[in-house]
Fold these 2 entries.
Entry 1:
Amino acid sequence: MTESILRHDWSLDEIEALFELPFNDLLFQAQSVHRANFDPNQVQMSSLLSIKTGACAEDCGYCSQSAKNATGLEAEKLMPLEDVVAAAEVAKAKGASRFCMGAAWRNPTDKNLERVVDMVEAVHDLGMETCLTLGMLTQAQANRLRDAGLDYYNHNLDTSPEFYGNVITTRTFDDRLHTLAHIRDAGINVCSGGILGMGESRRDRASMLRELCNLPRHPESVPINMLVKIEGTPLYNAEELDPFEFVRTIAVARLLMPRSYVRLSAGRTEMGDEMQALCFLAGANSIFYGERLLTTDNPEADRDIRLLRRLGMSTEQLQETEVKAAKVSCS
Ligand code: SAM
Ligand code: DTB
Ligand code: SF4
């Protein structure tokens, strides 16, 4: 069953049945679908930068940046353009193909959006793909970003509609869906996924994936985050998720959205190399790359390069960078 028929009519029971397959059967199916659609040894790499940090009006129970969570995080205003460009240049030199800029906003004001537009244009001029995550957008704002040449917008559903109210109360699941529709209608690539390990059930994980794959078009990019437990957040003491359940969720995402990039996102610093290799086997083909996520650590870039080499995996951008580096050292 490797034929990639893109379905948008999955039932919850069908998705739960995939979760319940024996682990090896599930991974075999997911890897078969993966290699029918992608080079199984290539990984896409995005780097992240927090361009506006902390003091956020939302009450997301997992987040270090909510003003409601006493996490001791120091708030920072919107970064100057030059600093953003400098960070993007470093990320590009290290081999990232996409630069994702995140802001701790419920939604951007039109004035702030214009400053971000300048950042998108400048990063695009470096020859990188651009991604933003700024919170909710109106249709007019999404259109403005499209006109500026934005490639991707990240807006996660985070969890199932049923579990959503346990994690966030200051906005609704439907608010998230509306912003996703605005991004899609503007013609910007959609990046949307969620977080595992927040105390949700398997049915919630299946339900979140169902929401994603039953959208009118599958998101081009699907980040699956393992909760990073941050002291001072309500979810700091959330029960540990079985790592195999995380791998299963990646595999089911791959089966439901065969042509989407599935990103093994936050939480990799806590994972061993073997766990990450299992996630790649399950169909993950994208990572966040560079020492920092938004406010927490990510594995060191050279550790990731070593891991990819040990697995015989690569990234197109990295190959180009290595060719350039080889040319410099020969000249
Ligand atoms: N404020 C915007 C928003 O909420 O859409 C953009 C930034 S927000 C930090 C982006 C995403 O990061 C969240 O939707 C969530 O899925 C993820 N995230 C935030 N904190 C996390 C944590 N502690 N562990 C895992 N993922 C997290
Ligand atoms: C996504 O799904 N994960 C990234 C990105 N999209 C914006 C953010 C992860 C944040 C992890 C916690 C932190 O560093 O604050
Ligand atoms: Fe704000 Fe985004 Fe963090 Fe929620 S996840 S508190 S919206 S920065």
Entry 2:
Amino acid sequence: MKILVLHGPNLNLLGKREPDNYGSATLEEINRGLSLVAEKSGVELEIFQSNSESELVDKIQQAVENFDGILINPAAYTHTSIALRDAVLAVNKPCVEVHLSNIHSREDFRAKSYLADVCAGQICGFGQDSYFLGLQALINLLKNKL
Ligand code: DQA
């Protein structure tokens, strides 16, 4: 089983970026934690971060051939990107949306996600644990399905 992990814009700055909202873990530390979760379940991960919407769309499109499911933190594109939504719909693979912060308890514009209703589910508000819980949930979903 192979899962694509996508991190959207500005998440490369985790650790130094708004620690009150996003915690002190770096993206590298989160990726290491994700790899441990995956290893325990015998799952292969490909992890990709981009600040570019088009690169994220290109990666999602690769899921048709190469991946069983997608774990994504679309970051700011969550609230703006019909292109990412359409890509998720196009590939028709289970997708889980995660956020470090609770997007429902912040500015009003963050409560709207263009991806949430085309994903299997959304996990937010638990810091880096949102990623680990999201990955485990996706693995469980895929294992029951496959
Ligand atoms: C975020 C929440 C988004 O609103 C924000 O634009 C981010 C990070 C999160 O993980 O909490 O960049 O996706």
